[in-house]
Design brief:
The structure holds 2 protein chains of 2 kinds. In chain A, helix 3 crosses helix 4. In chain A, 43% of the residues lie in helices and 14% in strands. Chain A has a 4-stranded mixed sheet, with helices on one face. Chain A has one domain: Glutaredoxin (3-Layer(aba) Sandwich), CATH 3.40.30.10. Chain A starts with 5 loop residues before the first helix and ends with a helix. Chain A is an alpha+beta fold. By secondary structure, chain B is α/β, with parallel strands linked by helices. Chain B has 5 domains: 103 residues, Glutaredoxin; 210 residues, Rossmann fold (3-Layer(aba) Sandwich); 84 residues, Ubiquitin-like (UB roll) (Roll), CATH 3.10.20.600; 88 residues, Up-down Bundle (de novo design (two linked rop proteins)), CATH 1.20.1440.230; 56 residues, Alpha-Beta Plaits, CATH 3.30.70. Chain B has a 5-stranded mixed sheet, sandwiched between helices. In chain B, strand 9 and strand 10 form a beta hairpin. The longest helix of chain B is centred in the C-terminal third of the chain and has 18 residues. Chain B starts with a strand and ends with a strand. The relative contact order of chain B is 0.09. Classes of the chains: A alpha+beta, B alpha/beta. At the A-B interface, helix 1, helix 3 and strand 2 of A face helix 6 and helix 7 of B.
């Protein structure tokens, strides 16, 4: 790169800041945990992981970190993921594919509304029925 | 595509020497082999500070803190953690409570720390200017060049209350102000990276982990005082720091952040590196300037101070690395923000290199006013091997010992002087009950005598005399008058030496005599060394009622000084014994005693 002007430096900083913020874990209050056991990977957890990263990027959601974990034990509904968002119950979704992943980000993380047809194990059934998880 | 995982590998000198570079290379290779190369970014960062547990590898966003990693672990980290999402438990910091202690934020070593100087160490890749820029890098320079006058910048430092971190704690704004006011067409900015205290490595780690912070700060200073040229004086035995500085300078020049017309502001500034040969006295500012000019590094009388007549007779600002690293943050966040951290007398934080008989040796940055007890016991984890704490030496060979009684003193420039030591550059050497205080004082005196430039008599002759007396005492030939003689010589050196090296050289003796007078007297009057360190003053013997005649000690003795038949009492021949202590370590029955 050639010598920069003030504007170019600021532009570069803005571009790079977004990239480095992904690395920073401070200030991230929400988390999406993806079960990446052998069963999860076989069922397509890898695609789901990539989709989450892409969609979060699209919506510029910088407060959400995506982490992986081992098998969550719900091997019959893999891929499974857990979503932890403040103000919402901790939720486990099963049978998640790329499309569902997009829906989870838009409906659950942004819209604060459970994606009811993919709920498994958590939250408990009575919560879902009573108030739709709010 | 965004990266889903970031693997940070410590690239400080300590971890590099434990093959961190090989770990880094292996991780990159494994990522490729296992098909995740474009999903995972492997970054080599500066020092994490937790050197005791190195090499360190940190994986984000899980924030898993892996310690004592070896190159062959790379495969498992990628295969298990990255592919399957299972942390490699055996490498986590505390395996017994794995999840609880896996996270960096949970590790006590980091809890009480507050990082300004080390803000980027262990997070960014120091060889990539973009990462520094992304972390508000060169924002302070923008502000200084386009929004502030020289006086504004100095005023901000005054509000901040920043004091020099090199040892003496002189207010930084005053130095800058004197230089600014000095009338001259040419002025210089110098960074003192000649870190020489035994056990101190704060400046090296800062340069290795975040070189741009120093370059940015020096440029800001150039603007403030009207200088166009800077020098970094660094010792040749810091090759990694020099290498990273050179890379950083090349990148900054390419971006137009160093050189002519910086960012189109019309301001020119460039920096050159000067290598020192490693003489301790060159850390003294006037000797350092002599060395840059190509002369022998010998201190010059002050005044005139460098601010008035420095490098090549021109007004010069000279600050040490840690001081520089604070400056971009002060300009960005404001002096008011900075002045809220620390104590009334000393603002901000201080980096310490914690070494010696401590469980967690490493690099620690704490707010001024933190007590020594917090540093040694909470952050440092206390004394290793269950021994008892004896003292801490701060200020290196110019400082003094601090004992148990003063552990609760909040640390700042003033308080350390009041308890008979000094801040110094930040070396902190912890001693336990096995360390002999006379021997430690002798170590420091030997160091300063070696490093004395020999120009003035008080330092050259006084230091040697003190050394001789200490030697005599540890050999068991001390007389009671020696204590008084050392005090007299010490006082003369304090008053009569030309530079701080000679003026402070007797400090380790004077302060240890004050706190451990008993131990000195034991050496002189009873001819005994309570810690068993001084070989000439101890005897190893075997207790008749405990020796079962197993012959273990006799077989291990390297000089064959132990005799005795099987199942019979063994005896040590005192004339042959070299007092190596092997018999003491070998005996399982507690029959060998040292007196």
């Amino acid at each position: 790169m050639a010598k920069m002007t003030l504007e170019e430096l600021r532009k570069l900083r803005n571009e790079k800041q977004a990239a480095i913020q992904k690395r920073d874990i401070e200030g991230k209050d929400s988390r999406i945990v993806i079960g990446m056991g052998t069963c999860g990977i076989a069922a397509g957890a890898k695609v789901v992981l990539d989709t989450f990263l892409e969609v979060l990027d699209e919506h510029k959601l910088e407060n959400v970190s995506v982490t992986q974990t081992g098998c969550m034990g719900l091997c019959y509904v893999e891929p499974t993921i857990e979503v932890l968002v403040p103000g919402m119950p901790d939720t486990i979704y099963g049978n998640v594919d790329a499309e569902t992943a997009k829906k989870i980000v838009e409906q659950h993380v942004i819209g604060k509304q459970l994606v009811t047809d993919h709920l498994f194990d958590r939250p408990a059934a009575d919560i879902i029925q009573k108030d739709g998880g709010r | 595509m965004a990266f889903r995982n970031y693997i940070l590998v410590c690239g400080g000198t300590a971890c590099e020497s434990s093959r961190a570079d090989q770990i880094y290379q292996n991780l990159i290779k494994e990522c490729k082999d296992q098909g995740v190369a474009d999903e995972v970014q492997v970054i080599k960062t500066g020092c994490f500070g937790f050197c005791e547990q190195g090499p360190i590898v940190k994986v984000l966003p899980e924030d898993s803190f892996y310690v004592k990693v070896s190159p062959k672990d790379a495969h498992e980290i990628i295969a298990e953690h990255i592919i399957k999402g299972r942390e490699v438990t055996r490498l986590l910091y505390d395996k017994s409570e794995s999840r609880k202690h896996a996270k960096v934020e949970d590790i006590q070593f980091y809890q009480k720390q507050f990082r300004i100087v080390l803000r980027n160490c262990g997070f960014i890749d120091p060889e990539n200017i973009d990462e520094y820029i992304a972390r508000e890098g060169y924002e302070a320079l923008e502000k200084a060049l386009f929004e502030m006058t020289g006086d504004d910048i100095i005023e901000e430092l005054k509000t901040a209350g920043l004091r020099g971190r090199g040892g003496a704690g002189f207010p930084t704004w005053m130095k800058w102000n004197f230089t600014k006011q000095a009338e001259n067409d040419v002025k210089y900015v110098v960074c003192n990276a000649d870190e020489g205290d035994p056990g101190a490595y704060m400046d090296r780690s800062t340069l290795e982990g975040d070189p741009h912070s120093v370059l940015e700060a020096m440029t800001i200073c150039g603007k403030a005082i009207g200088a166009q040229k800077g020098y970094i004086y660094i010792r040749a035995e810091y090759p990694l720091a020099i290498n990273r500085l050179e890379i950083a300078m090349a990148q900054a020049r390419e971006y137009g952040l160093l050189g002519k017309n910086i960012l189109g502001s019309g301001f020119d500034f460039d920096i050159e590196i000067r290598l020192g040969a490693g003489a301790f006295v060159c850390g003294e500012e006037t000797a350092l300037l002599q060395s840059i000019e190509g002369h022998r590094g010998m201190p010059q009388p002050r005044p005139p101070f460098p601010a008035v007549k420095g490098l090549w007779g021109k007004p010069t600002v000279i600050n040490n690395v840690e001081t520089w690293a604070n400056i971009p943050v002060i300009i960005s966040k404001g002096g008011n923000w900075f002045s809220k951290i620390g104590t009334a007398d000393s603002k901000g934080t201080k980096v310490f290199a914690l070494t010696g008989k401590i469980r967690n040796s490493g690099l620690v940055e704490v707010p001024m006013g933190t007590t020594l007890r917090e540093i040694v016991f909470d952050i440092g984890g206390g004394i290793a091997n269950g021994r008892k704490f004896k003292a801490v030496q701060t200020g290196g060979p110019s400082g003094g010992v601090i004992t148990d009684a003063d552990l609760d003193t909040p640390i700042d420039f003033g308080s350390l002087v009041r308890i008979g030591s000094m801040m110094g550059s930040g070396g902190m050497i912890v001693m336990d009950e096995d360390d002999c205080i006379v021997d430690v004082a002798k170590f420091y005196l030997n160091f300063t005598v070696d490093e004395s430039c020999g120009k003035c008599a008080p330092c050259r002759i006084g230091g040697r005399s003190l050394c001789n007396i200490l030697e005599k005492i540890t050999l068991g030939n001390g007389v009671p008058e020696d204590l008084e003689a050392m005090a007299t010589i010490g006082k003369a050196m304090r008053v009569g030496s030309l530079c701080a090296l000679g003026q402070t050289a007797p400090n380790p003796i004077l302060s240890s005599m004050k706190f451990f007078g008993e131990e000195y007297r034991a050496h002189i009057e009873d001819k005994s060394c309570p810690s068993g360190t001084c070989k000439n003053l101890v005897t190893y013997s075997i207790l008749a009622d405990k020796c079962i005649g197993c012959t273990a000690c006799a077989r291990k003795c390297p000089v064959g000084a132990i005799t005795g038949e099987k199942k019979q009492l063994h005896i040590i021949d005192q004339n042959t014994c070299i007092k190596c202590g092997v018999c003491l370590e070998t005996c399982k029955f507690g029959a060998v005693v040292v007196q």
